[in-house]
Amino acid sequence: MSESAEIIVVGGGLFGPAIAYGLARRGCDVALLDDGDDVLRAARGNFGLVWVQSKGMGMQRYQDWSRESAELYPDFAAELKELTGIDVIYRRGGLQLLLGDEEVEAKQAEIDRMKAQAGDRDFACEIIPRDEAQQMVPELRFGNRVTGAGYCRYDGDVNPLKLLRALLAGFQAAGGRYRSAARVETIRHDGAAFVAKTQQGRFTAPKIVLAAGHGITRLAPMVGLYVPIRPQRGQVLVTERAEVRLPIPLATVRQTDEGSVQLGNSEEDVDFDDGTTLDVTRRIAARTISLFPALAALRLVRSWGCIRVLTPDKCAIYDESEEFPGAYVATSHSGVTLAAVNARQVAPWISDRETPPGFDHFSAKRFGRGEDDVQAA
Ligand SMILES: Cc1cc2nc3c(=O)[nH]c(=O)nc-3n(C[C@H](O)[C@H](O)[C@H](O)COP(=O)(O)OP(=O)(O)OC[C@H]3O[C@@H](n4cnc5c(N)ncnc54)[C@H](O)[C@@H]3O)c2cc1C
User: Fold this and answer.
1) Which of 141, 172, 200, 308 is the most buried (most CB within 10 A)?
2) How many helices (H) and strands (E) in the chain?
3) Which residue among 19, 33, 34, 209 is best mutated to probe the pocket of ligand 1, counting the most ligand atoms within 8 A of its Cβ?
4) 49 Cβ closer than 6 Å to some ligand 1 atom
């Protein structure tokens, strides 16, 4: 079997569907190719935050990028609902609760550094006192050790599985072709177009976008792209459904629209091991109880480990191949947060070379490239 398209997007996680959705909405003929069910997919195991505070330390463009996406979200979520009927349950508001004076001092130091980096730009994060934070979460008393909270008016959350479903539905409603179980094995350029070989046959297009999370590492060298990414595990716990209502998400405690409470979120360097461990489960549960003692009464019903896709500076990479123009890569942590800019700002870059100011900051050239990397490629 052989299919052709204007643009092939590789990867059905969060980056691929958001960009493919944006491209299809612009009238492009897009084939979105995804691997099978048994592969790494951060898109299906994340925490659902649309988060701006603490993003982009060391790279102001990425701080702005996260905020720009959060600013687009209300309209973006409404557009998805209108087009697909799927409500992604976008909420604005969020807190990072702080335990003890040490955490307040560390957060204040982070805010000061980010403010200095932002200069006269809008860095809307501050520490608010415990009482003010408690008023935002009136139904659930904080533990005694909560001293304050990091607050940013752009933070929020969505139901990430509904977001994924809405992006795929919207993409198909706009004429896109989604092919699951179509793992891209090889990509070559035949002089006129890129040819992606999959289990379902060949797909041919003059443009190809690698948005396949960790799958990018194997594919990027085939089209002359350098994409340094590494895995990091996060473990998440889920409680039974609770009657209490958390009206906004906390950085590590988030109630889903179905009522269960998600607790997070570890950062572990364990290669691609996506298992769970008792020590981390205990640590997450203990911190949650320090934040909200009443949650100790809830039963845990599920836990999982999921692998983040991280660049060396934890900021996004968007790049076009110099050796094979028309081959693009898009990857980052924070694929939930960035879904709106991926659909509305990255898609025009790929379809029409329209880029927002400072977009070149996202090139992987910022990491340089050692001799070992060149040989590995
Ligand atoms: C524990 C945890 C919590 C997180 N919390 C948040 C959060 O609160 N907010 C936030 O914004 N982000 C969060 N993230 C990050 C977010 O989930 C990721 O940034 C996002 O999923 C990355 O999307 P992706 O499409 O690049 O990669 P993935 O979601 O990993 O998807 C990659 C896709 O590519 C496909 N693929 C791979 N190789 C191939 C191939 N050869 N051919 C075809 N398809 C291929 C796979 O099948 C998969 O569908 C979290 C992540 C983790 C692990």
Assistant:
1) 308
2) 10, 20
3) 34
4) yes
pTM: 0.97
Residue 16 CB–ligand 1 contact under 6 Å: yes
Instruction: Provide CB contacts within 8 A for 289, sequence distance 6+.
Output: 143, 295, 296
Q: For ligand 1, what atom is nearest to the CA of residue 305? A: 1
Per-residue confidence (pLDDT) for residue 372, from 0 to 100:
47
* CA–CA separation, 227 and 221 (whole Å): 9
Residue of 21, 4, 10 lying closest to 338 (CA atoms) = 21
Q: How confident is the model at residue 374 (pLDDT cuts 50, 70, 90)?
A: very low
pLDDT exceeds 90 at position 36: no
In percent, the amount of the chain with pLDDT more than 70 equals 98
Q: Which domains does the chain have, with CATH numbers?
A: 2-50+160-229+314-376 (3.50.50.60), 94-152 (no CATH), 230-310 (3.30.9.10)
